[in-house]
Amino acid sequence: MNKRRKTRNVKVGKIGIGSAYPVSVQSMTNTDTADLNATIAQIRELEKAGCQIVRIAVPDMRAAENVDKIKKAVDAAIVADIHFDWRLAIECVKRGADKIRINPGNIGDKAKVREVAKACADKGIPIRIGVNCGSLKALKKNPRPDWPAKKWALTMANEAMEQAEILDSMNFKDIVVSLKADDIERTVLANKIFAEKTDIPLHLGVTEAGTFVSGVVKSSIGIGSLLSEGIGDTIRVSLTENPSTQVRTAFEILKALGMAEYGPEIISCPTCGRCQANVYKAVHDIEERIYSNPALREKAKGKKIAVMGCVVNGPGEAREADFGICGGRGKGVWIEKGKQIKVIGENEWSNEIIRKIRNS
User: Where residue 104 falls among pLDDT bands split at 50, 70, 90?
Assistant: First the structure.
């Protein structure tokens, strides 16, 4: 993995973004922000999953007026997502938002952008410029351009630079930029091009990545390839799934690259005709119990746990695990550090692993 690209650093509440800090994980609520209780409840669920920065949609003043109430009820840094109406951004700044996400191109003339920048500067609040390939200014002239990926990427990077320069001309430096497409190649190329031009930190994601399987694959390849080249300072996985699933997926990407510790590493076999135990049920039960409990997830951090379906390859493949099970008909062999310790009934596999984590 390449060394992290050196960037300027900004603070979003207590969370730092930039090369001086670890890569952070974000998500976004899908509640109506005007529904205070639902929004707070979802943010708390995201926090349980480990989310550090949460973006909320602010489409109107009712939503903006809830920002301070939300801030008092949660610990995560709160980002107000603003489009078109600069006054909403000002109101969110007054009410304590930790970051404002705008697209200067759709906020209005420079005087309005200047007002937003001044309000943010006075409070020490950064601004994220979001550029998505579906809302480029260039598309107003040509709604369905037949461009190669590099032309899309250049257009995205250039529009991001133009918008960053608007803020830069106002001496506003606390900027984060995101360049996202629903296409891996465009996303990766756009971020690489932008990263060569400036020291502004980058928020990574493949937008509208889809449902779980396709979205995880696209996000892992897109985000992972950029991170492996040292590009990227904060990430969000966009899935048409529960937002907490987005958070876990983001941490799993960081964990796979060695950039974060998050829960255990669970190795489990895909099962075959030799398998005489319900490995699927056991593994999913173990994961659910660990990842729904922040304290248990923390205790399991860094541990390698094996759940294998038979004795043909299981003992050998579980050799490097801290502990785990190799299954048989209605029972399994408990293994610790490669040694076979005892036999456990299948209905106790999950409980035994959870007990081991709690007592470790």
Answer: low
What are the tens digits of pLDDT across the range 45-96? Answer: 999 999 999 999 999 999 999 999 999 999 999 999 998 899 999 999 999 9
Distance in angstroms (rounded) separating the CA atoms of residues 198 and 271: 49
* Residue indicated by tokens 């409990």: 293
Length of the chain: 360
| Separation between Cα atoms, residue 349 and residue 327, nearest integer Å | 9
At 144 the pLDDT is 85
What is the tens place of the pLDDT at every residue in 203-253? 999 998 889 999 999 999 999 999 999 999 999 999 999 999 999 999 999
Q: Which residues contact 262 (CB under 8 A, 6 or more apart)?
A: 50, 248, 251, 252, 254, 255, 297, 301
| Cα separation, 216 vs 218, whole angstroms | 6
Report how far residue 265's alpha carbon sits from residue 263's, in angstroms, rounded to the nearest whole number.
Answer: 7
CA gap 48, 40 in Å, rounded: 12
25: amino acid identity, one letter: V
* Global pTM value: 0.93
pLDDT over 90 at 112, yes or no: no
